[in-house]
Amino acid sequence: MTDARPGVTPPVALAFGTIGFFALLIAGFGMLSLLTGAEVVAVPGLGPLPGAFAVAFAVIAFVLATWAVVRRPEPGYGGVVLVVVATFLAYLLGLLVGAMFGGIDLARALAAAGAFATSWFAVVLASTALVAGWTAVALVRTRAGRPRWPWEDRSD
Predict the structure, then answer these.
(1) What is the pLDDT of residues 76-122, one digit of tens each?
(2) What is the pLDDT of residues 17-71, one digit of tens each?
(3) How does DSSP assign 33-68, residue by residue?
(4) Would you tell me how many other CB atoms lie within 10 Å of the CB of residue 125?
(5) Which residues contact 5 (CB under 8 A, 6 or more apart)?
(6) Alpha carbons 96 and 93: distance in angstroms, whole number
(7) Fewer CB within 10 A of the terminal residue: the chain, N end or C end?
(8) How far are the Cα atoms of 29, 92, 127 from residue 43, in angstroms, in the given order?
(9) Closest CA to 116 of 91, 99, 84, 133
(10) What is the enclosing helix (H) or strand (E) of 103?
């Protein structure tokens, strides 16, 4: 069986990139919080809802932006900038929406978004989106086939 397009298909690259993004984001936030003793959402009294909304919004934005990049016939690495910006802005929007659903006043919600945007956690988020988005593009661009044993015929 031969594929018209060798390498990883865009949906598979998107799945790997999304799973990697989510895993790296949770691990990165956890390690940074452990090392610095800081909370990801630094405003007290917000509860878990804004953080959960923010991560959900970021993952959705990552999926949509990465799909827009990898579905092209020859995806470019420059498109990963779109992935990073969309993911970052979606995280901030998710914080605000989550705070709204949690019954938090606008001033504290904006304070939480501003504190996140100027923290090291924002660097972790952007770096994670960059690495996972770049990986998804690299998977699609790489035209390598599956590993084969020496006795396998290349024409199979």
Answers:
(1) 999 999 999 999 999 999 999 999 998 888 999 999 999 999 999 99
(2) 999 999 999 999 999 999 999 999 988 888 899 999 999 999 999 999 999 999 9
(3) HHHH---SS-STT--SHHHHHHHHHHHHHHHHHHHH
(4) 28
(5) none
(6) 5
(7) N
(8) 16, 14, 23
(9) 91
(10) none
